[in-house]
Amino acid sequence: MKFKNAAVVGAVALASALALSACSSDGGNAGSDSTPSATKSATVDYSSLSGTITAGGSSAQANVQAAWTAAFQAQASGVKINYDKSQGSGGGVTNWLNGSYDFAGTDAALSADQFTQAKTTCGSDGAVNIPVYLSGVSIIYKLDGVSKLNLDAKTIASIFSGKITKWNDPAIAALNSGVTLPATAISVVHRSDGSGTTNNFTTYLHQQAPSVWTWDAGTAWPNNIGSGQQGGSGVVNTVEAGNGTIGYADQSSIGNATQAAVEVGSTGKFVEYSEAAATKSLDESGQITPQGEGDLTVTIDTTKITDTSAYPIPLLSYDVLCKSFKDATQGKITSAYLGFVVSKTGQEIGAKNAGAAPLPSSFLTKAAKTLASVK
């Protein structure tokens, strides 16, 4: 689905309706939701905030950040938020570590080395990774005459490693009984920039098909197969412009591109992305493994996904910020905004306007607690 101006209006309307509903239930303090994530967002006096938040990174977050920004600014008119998606996750983290951003959007949590480096950026308290956005990595393709396609992990890994080069390869045909597959050459499209989406995708390949995908997971594309494109939109546009093309992108950015159904493990069940399917996959595969106090890094093991209604390739995206800001005012407005993002209202806006999947309430409760400690 593509984000449009109408969705911004929808985000503002939804935020206002939810805020009014909360106020009417308790005389002005929106404490009717029992989760701290919802309570924190509702009890902040947004009208008292002013300043500019500068951030950037993950292109997967671009649509949802636009919706969150519109809804937040409807209540905090004194705050301006600039989010630059052009750098991707890798560039966003680099710019944040260099002190250019108040927070970085990234589809991969800070590495151990980056987490240590953050103490130079932030001071001795260091940084925290906050999960904010759950989606999925869609396998998109353009193949004339083929509107439905099933793929499993081994076949996907073989395609993206250059071992399968024709669309009528027996491995693909075996998964698609009754489908006439042409002898068209496969053209792989991948990210050229440092990408958290690439990290999520290669994590899946490395975990599910290690005998074929021998490279470690990472934000940089590891081989010279196919065409590298800048940003998720670059991948989607290139796939859509060709024939015989295949690529990967965050689900929210694929627009009208055709996505393959992906097999859950070796169950024989093939699942396309849906919000509910992504939430189920994180429930089964994700575990919070903190790198420090208050940090919410999540380790995902896709081999644990066995529910045949779960989507096999989840994408979890973070916002990364300092625990202690050098400018207390900047810390206040940044933590207020991200507190809104992880609130019940913020998550509903993400689902309505960017197809985001709801994060588990346990994640949101921990995120609200961490953000409350940012200063």
Q: Quickly count the helices.
A: 13
Helix fraction, binned, reads 40-55%
- Going by CATH, the architecture of the largest domain would be 3-Layer(aba) Sandwich
How much of the sequence lies in strands comes to 15-25%
Number of strands: 14
Name the structural class: alpha/beta
Please give the structural blueprint.
Blueprint: H1 5-26, H2 36-43, E1 51-57, H3 62-75, E2 79-84, H4 88-97, E3 103-106, H5 112-122, E4 127-142, E5 150-151, H6 153-160, H7 170-174, E6 187-191, H8 196-208, E7 227-229, H9 231-241, E8 245-250, E9 258-259, E10 261-263, E11 270-271, H10 275-285, E12 286-288, E13 298-300, E14 314-322, H11 328-341, H12 344-354, H13 361-372
Parallel strand pairs: 1-2, 1-3, 5-10, 6-7, 6-8
Antiparallel strand pairs: 3-14, 4-8, 4-9, 4-14, 10-11, 12-13
Helix pairs in contact: 1-3, 1-12, 2-11, 2-13, 3-12, 11-13
